[in-house]
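Task: sequence design from structure.
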């Protein structure tokens, strides 16, 4: 097969053969062309050479253009793969990304039930390199209707704007920047079949509010978030924090909450974060009923460091406490609500796609810690997780309860299947 790089050689051989043929067929001297005729022959040959050079140049340009198109197509495919979803064009510009996650759980013990706990669809759109939209729609417990077994809920729906290279703003319904699991809770990202109880009873994960958030990086080691948003409403729930989530559904907004967070990530595999929230009244009463000022302080750390080429050590630890200033909350012991947990883990990478991890977690929480009555919950969880793929996980754990009220204990085996895409 002839290639462009062999073209000069072929032209040279053709010229030699032509010259040889011309010599072999040289006529007698009396038939030799005149000097003028020879000059015309040379000019004609030069025109033919220029035409051939033009053809070769055009072909070379076409090859270069084709190579550029192939490279551009490859870059687009790489971007789609890295986004974890499918991108399609919508409107005059931008791309839409689709993703999601799901969890199937079996809980033994007194529960002894199986549950399609969550199915979440993520939909995002990038209007430009500085303006984006994110949303998540969730179905809990498989069905929602007259039986009210579960719920269909909007978990997120907000716009994000890049203000500078280090600063961005987001507006809409979004996750409150507090704790470890509240913002990152896809099943393949945490140990245990169920999300830990401290980030369920004290930090009411998944906790979302409507508001405006400013986020950015102070430098390579520190980042921050400041969010002004709708707040809790514990009216009718006796200051139970989790019950106070309004989930942005016709939610009273007579009182605004403010949450701030500072995060340090100055070492590879190490994060330390602290959050503080203030709400002037978590009853949203506007002064009609008892006013209850509430503050939340939370600090956590995440460590994931390599031990060897195929093994790593992990550690999660968190402490959180609410202080509620209200007479009724004080009588119920709910003026102080706190909890903490520590979770070491060890992960072994078996090959490119397979990994197995072991963990232990000790948790303590008390939503009525403001009185002298023991109302605490202590729980130890031991378990193993297997990743046949980095985005697919199989889970097994055993929880041991040690509650102040022993009737509420439920030692049990839990099994889970999780995926994200």
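Answer:
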């Amino acid at each position: 097969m002839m290639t462009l790089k062999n073209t000069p050689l072929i032209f040279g051989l053709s010229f030699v053969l032509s010259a040889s043929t011309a010599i072999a067929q040289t006529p007698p001297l009396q038939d030799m062309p005149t000097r003028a005729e020879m000059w015309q022959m040379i000019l004609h040959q030069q025109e033919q050479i220029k035409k051939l050079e033009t053809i070769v140049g055009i072909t070379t340009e076409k090859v270069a253009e084709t190579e550029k198109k192939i490279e551009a197509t490859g870059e687009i495919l790489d971007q789609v793969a890295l986004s974890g979803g499918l991108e399609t064009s919508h409107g005059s510009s931008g791309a839409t990304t689709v993703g999601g996650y799901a969890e199937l759980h079996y809980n033994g013990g007194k529960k002894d039930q199986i549950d399609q706990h969550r199915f979440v669809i993520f939909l995002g759109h990038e209007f430009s390199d500085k303006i984006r939209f994110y949303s998540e729609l969730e179905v809990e417990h498989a069905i929602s209707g007259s039986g009210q077994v579960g719920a269909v809920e909007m978990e997120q729906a907000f716009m994000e704007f890049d203000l500078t290279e280090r600063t961005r703003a987001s507006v809409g319904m979004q996750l409150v920047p507090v704790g470890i699991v509240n913002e990152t809770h896809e099943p393949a990202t945490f140990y245990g079949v169920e999300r830990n109880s401290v980030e369920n009873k004290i930090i009411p994960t998944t906790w979302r509010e409507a508001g405006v958030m400013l986020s950015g990086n102070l430098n390579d080691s520190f980042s921050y978030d400041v969010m002004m948003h709708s707040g809790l409403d514990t009216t009718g729930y006796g200051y139970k924090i989790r019950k106070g989530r309004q989930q942005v559904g016709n939610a009273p907004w007579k009182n605004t909450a403010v949450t701030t967070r500072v995060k340090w990530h100055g070492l590879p595999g190490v994060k330390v974060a602290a959050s503080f929230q203030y709400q002037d009244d978590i009853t949203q009463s506007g002064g009609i009923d008892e006013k209850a000022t509430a503050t939340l302080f939370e600090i956590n750390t995440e460590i994931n460091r390599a031990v060897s080429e195929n093994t790593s050590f992990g550690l999660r630890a968190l402490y959180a406490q609410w202080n509620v200033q209200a007479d009724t909350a004080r009588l119920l012991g709910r003026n102080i609500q706190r909890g903490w947990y520590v979770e070491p883990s060890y992960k072994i990478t078996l090959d490119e796609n397979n990994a197995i991890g072991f963990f232990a977690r000790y948790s303590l929480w008390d939503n009525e810690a403001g009185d002298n009555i023991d109302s605490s919950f202590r729980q130890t969880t031991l378990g193993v997780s297997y990743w046949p793929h980095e985005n697919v996980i199989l889970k097994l754990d055993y929880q041991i309860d040690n509650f102040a009220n022993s009737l509420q204990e439920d030692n049990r085996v839990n099994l889970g299947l999780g995926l994200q895409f």
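The chain is about 20% helix and 45% strand.
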